[in-house]
Specification:
The protein has 403 residues and is mainly alpha-helical. The chain contains 17 helices and three strands. Helix content is 67%, strand content 4%. Strand 2 and strand 3 form a beta hairpin. It starts with a helix and ends in a 5-residue tail after the last helix.
């Protein structure tokens, strides 16, 4: 029994990193099966998750880094053990709402394991039983997945802390008591914006998508400004991570950056983990993510319909696609910024309070960004395919976002 922690460390090192060795990992997995070590394996996984949470990571972050590099089986195990750990800590009733939303997102993305495993007698034993397999090979394969998870997660660095960590959670999440119906405008407006963007994503007619996106952006800007004015100078700054999938993740991150800039949100890109962090007011951050998601769908569709893209093959196609998305991002960013300035000018004529509040919010966003990322540096753009750039620029011109 005393050998099990050492075997877990040895196997984790053999599954991920420079010391990777399939032979060593297989040997460790076989030994763990024979030692009936599932209870300690479960504890090692949940302890690892708790440590990472205290080091700034959040549930969807841990799913994202695993899914980028490992098999579906390892990703499913990661999702299942994260939900199991959430049950152990009663996260559904204690964690901030954003954290609970991430757990719900894991359930949506992994429907087969969303019915959380009953950990009797321990999680790993129950998880294997739930798969319908109980033979030696299945048990050995599961141990390889466990060791891979431990190996991947143990390499993760400390990250900037966004919000309260689990050790700071209350025993029960406090209920916010306010003016009756105060949350209704928020819910109604966001539902309306989501509806417009969903229609823009679904339509095959460019003119209809342009109209819907423009209307959604107008509602976003107006609602953000109304929220600022109603706050009467009470500035709240939020941080949120956005996980960007390939291909062309850096180019997609550039699109997120320009959408954020137009909406008074600062973004920083972590190329190692393909994660962007947004810093801004809660409303602006949420709406930036909504608009980015919609524009990414539209940009991907425009790239797929591009005649020039269809002529390219293999490496040429990849170079074209990257340049296309970068150009699309830059051009859309310019147009969004122009539209935002126009809307702000209109609202300023209606209220003399807007400029001082905007200035105070900008200072607060910059201060929080500098606190979270004191060593942040600008990145140089890559060399890009000229034809792809021109095509992306033209596609962005067709996405009419003017008022």
């Amino acid at each position: 029994m005393n050998d099990i922690p050492g075997l877990l460390r040895k196997g984790a090192d053999a599954c991920v990193g420079k010391a990777k060795s399939h032979r060593v990992a297989d040997d460790v997995a076989d030994r763990l099966v024979s030692m009936d070590a599932t209870e300690l394996g479960t504890r090692a996984l949940t302890n690892m998750i708790e440590t990472l949470y205290e080091n700034g990571w959040q549930p969807m972050d841990l799913v994202h880094v695993v899914r980028r590099q490992h098999t579906v089986a390892v990703s499913n195990l990661a999702a299942a053990v994260l939900l199991h750990q959430a049950d152990l800590t009663d996260a559904d009733s204690r964690a901030p709402q954003g954290w609970v939303d991430q757990l719900s997102s894991i359930c949506e993305q992994f429907p087969r394991i969303s019915a959380r495993v009953e950990a009797t007698p321990d999680f790993l034993t129950a998880y294997l039983a739930a798969s319908g397999k109980s033979d030696y090979i299945a048990a050995s394969d599961q141990w390889l997945d466990v060791l891979t998870l431990l190996g991947q997660w143990q390499t993760l660095p400390r990250w900037p802390q966004l919000g309260a960590k689990p050790s700071q959670w209350p025993r029960a999440r406090p209920t916010v008591v306010g003016v009756p119906g105060a949350d209704a405008p928020n819910t109604k407006m966001l539902s309306k914006i989501r509806g417009l963007l969903a229609k823009a994503d679904a339509t095959d007619f460019e003119e209809e998508a342009e109209t819907l996106t423009a209307k959604a952006q107008e509602l976003m800007t107006r609602y953000s400004i109304d929220t600022m004015l109603l706050s009467q100078g009470n500035i709240d700054i939020d941080g949120r991570r956005v996980h960007v999938d390939g291909p062309h993740a850096p180019a997609k991150a550039q699109l997120l950056h320009v959408v954020g800039t137009a909406n008074r949100v600062k973004a920083i890109w972590d190329p190692e983990f393909a994660v962007a962090t947004l810093v801004g007011s809660p409303v602006d951050v949420q709406q930036t993510e909504l608009l980015f998601t919609s524009l990414l769908v539209q940009a991907t569709r425009a790239l797929g319909h591009s005649p020039e893209a269809k002529k390219r093959k293999k490496a040429g196609s990849a170079a074209f696609g990257k340049a296309f998305l970068y150009a699309y991002a830059v051009r859309v960013g310019d147009r969004l910024s122009d539209a935002e300035a126009h809307t702000l000018e209109e609202v300023q004529r209606e209220s003399d309070d807007l400029l001082p509040i905007l200035a105070a919010q900008t200072v607060a966003v910059e201060a929080e960004f500098d606190r979270l990322f004191p060593t942040a540096k600008p990145m140089r753009g890559p060399r890009l395919d000229a034809e792809g750039w021109d095509s992306g620029h033209a596609a962005a011109d067709q996405a009419d976002l003017s008022r």
